[in-house]
Every structure is written in structure tokens, then in C-alpha cells.
Design goal:
Largest sheet: 7 strands, mixed
Radius of gyration: 20 Å
Bound molecules: ligand LNRAV4D5
Distance between the termini: 33 Å
Structural class: alpha/beta
Strand order of the largest sheet: 6-5-4-7-10-13-14
Number of strands: 14
Mean pLDDT: 95
Order of helices and strands: EEEHHHHHEHEHEHEEEHEEHEEEH
Oligomer: single chain
Number of helices: 11
Helix content: 25-40%
Length: 363
Amino acid sequence: MSADAETIRYHAATENSAAAVDLIDQTRLPAETVRLVCSTLPELHDAIVRLVVRGAPAIGIAAAYGVTLAPIDANASPAEVRQSYYEAIDYLATSRPTAVNLFWALDRMRGIVDAATDDAIGNLAQRLADEAIAIHEEDREMCRSMGRHGSALLTKCQTVLTHCNTGGLATSMYGTALAPIYFLHEKGHTLNVYADETRPLMQGARLTAWELAQAGVPVTVCTDSMAGGLMRDGKVDAVIVGSDRIAANGDVANKIGTYPLSVLARYHNVPFYVVAPTNTFDLELASGDLIPIEQRGEDEMRYTLGAESNIHANGRMAVPREAAVINPAFDVTPAELVTAIVTELGVIESPNVERVRQHFAAS
Ligand SMILES: CSC[C@H]1O[C@H](OP(=O)(O)O)[C@H](O)[C@@H]1O
């Protein structure tokens, strides 16, 4: 998959076929490149829950398309049609709690339903499909813009370390934190990338390594626990990560393991960059302490890759049942440990509540 492969495809409804959302099944990567076609709401909801489709922007795009899968009774009244779409939106909102892009996208779709008058209810399905397609297209543009803005921060770098997967698989294409890496690669400045494994679901080892290798970017997988030693040895010029939700003061929720990376980066004077589109900001939340953190199932921790967790293959029991496990999917990095946040609008240096406010005010 190159940086601009289609993580999500939409098959719009026709006279002869219903709408469907066609996804790369990320639980099967890197061993198999297979696609999963979701033609019902439960299938799409399950695909988000199981991380078939994952990554904050990609979750929002998939959920937006998911609204068009709502079952609509041919004899329903306009009010009943709207109600069916509202129920679909509320159901999709229960899939995962942290990535605010999901709720941002669903709110956009809700606005289309709100605006549907009784006499134009017949066009609502098409307007919803058009809005989801617009959300998808806008994300492509935002990723390209983040690549451009973020690249300016990395021009003096030779090696960067990244966490989880923030490339085309986590977005429409190109990515957030990987976008500057792809952008520089296209310009002839190819960075070396350390991709840490990102336990327990190994998005770094399975997805970032696969994606960068496909794009011809040299990538070395390291364990999560190696990051500090690499920084101590002067082997990391910058850390660059994505985000699932950023509070009004610049606190950043991202994949579990991000916070310790920020502490290590500060201790070793390594710049720590966050790349996220403006729809990842939740300006209603004053600080990161208020960001809901998804607690995922035990089996993702108890088993090595595969088998009982939601990653296929024949994993082995790695943690005895007698031991308890915890599995928070995200942690929060305080703004004071973030060197800069890159959005599609530009760069927020040393983010704080005032600088975040100014960034949005300037847009
Ligand atoms: C470009 S957003 C990617 C973001 O989403 C990941 O979480 P998950 O794999 O659980 O969807 C991770 O936090 C990444 O930074």
C-alpha cells in the first residue's frame, strides 16, 4: 500500500444495489491484504470496534459513510426516516469513545438530517452520501497540508521515531504524523524511521512498518521499551506522533505509550511533535484530564498476536488467567511536553490554551 492507497472505499447505493463501505481489514495486516465490505450498520460498527478500520480520521470517515447504511423503511414518514438516521448516528457513536473525529463526523451527518425538510426527505439519502464523500475528500486535503507544514520541522532530521500507525491506514490517505515523512520522501529527503511496536495490538510493527516499507521509506522496528535507549544514544532526532483527541489547552490523547515517549524526549532534549487535523481538537474540554480513555478487552493483553484477541492468526496465551491485566488504549500527554502541534492550518509552537485559541481564530 502506498501512501495514497484507498484505506476506505464507498460503494454508493444504486437502483440495483445498496450502499456499502469497503475497508482494508487492518487486523489481517501485514500477513494478508484483504478487504472487508460492510453493507449493514452492525458490520460497520463491529469493524470500528475490532480495529478493522482504525485511526482517528479513518474512524470518522468510516462512521460518516456508515450513516448511509441505516435501514430505511420504504413506507416510512419523513419523521420516521429522520429518526432512523438519528438512531444510526447514535449507534455508531457507541463504537469507540476517544477519537473525537468520530463524533465530529457524526455531528456533520446529524446536521444534514436536521436540515432535511419533509418535502425534500426523498433527497436525504443522497445528501448524506454527498456529505460523507466531502468529509473523505477534505481529509485527503488536510493530510497533504499537514505533510507540508510538518515537513518544515523535520528538514534538519535524519532519523525520527514514531508510535502506533498514523499513515494512510489511519486516515483517508497519506496520514497525519507520517505525512511529513512521506512529503519529504517525495522531495528527495528520505528520513530513517524507528517504528516502535506499539503493544498490545502492534500498530507500529504491523502497520507502520508495512506502510513505510511499501512506500520505500527505510523503517526499523523497535520495541516500545527501546525508545529511551535510542534517544540516550543520540539516535533519534525527533519524535513524531498522531492524536485521537486534543483538549483546548493542548493536552494530547494518543495511543497508550505516547506519554512516556514525551517524558523521554523532554529528558533527552529531543523535539516531540504531534500531528493532527483541527477536527481532532475538542475545544469543549479544558484539559486532557477530561478526555474519555477507551478501556479495551483483556484478551488483547493476554494473547500474543492473533487468536483470541481481535487480531487473527493462532496466538498463544502470554498472560496466565490468574494474573489481572489492564488495557487502556490511550494516554494523555500534557501540553508542556509537546514541542509543537501540526495541523492542516500550520504549526502551534509550545501549545497552550492561548496559542490553541489563536490557531483557530486565525483560520
Ligand atoms: C491518525 S490518528 C492515529 C491514531 O489512532 C490510533 O489509535 P487506534 O489504532 O487505536 O485507532 C493511535 O492513537 C494513533 O496515533
